Amino acid sequence: MLSSLVKEHQAKQAAKRVTQEQKRKECIAAANELTQALVDHLNVGVAQAYLNQKKLDAEAKLLHQGAINFAKQTQQWLALVENFSSALKEIGDVENWARSIENDMKIITDTLERAYETTQGQPTSNK
Description:
127 residues, mainly alpha, 0% strand, rod-shaped
């Protein structure tokens, strides 16, 4: 009788161990699933932040390149305006030179006419 009680007790304990082992495995699996779900939830936010950062970096590079191109274009425009300004100054200088030559020629012409009048004795009308 005692041996049958011991065997029965050992059988119950073995069954409890099997049940406990099964529940322990289920608990470990549930904990793994929970951990995985939490990590996945966090990774979604991190992945979204990473994608946003990549987009921002790409936009920043495009903006930087656009700024460089704009600076180059601005320098070209400034050079063109400077050249145009210099050309206008040169035209003004040529115009002043031409007026100066014209005035000198008028003076020479008037002087020659007066000299001619004086030598010929015939007055002519002054211009």
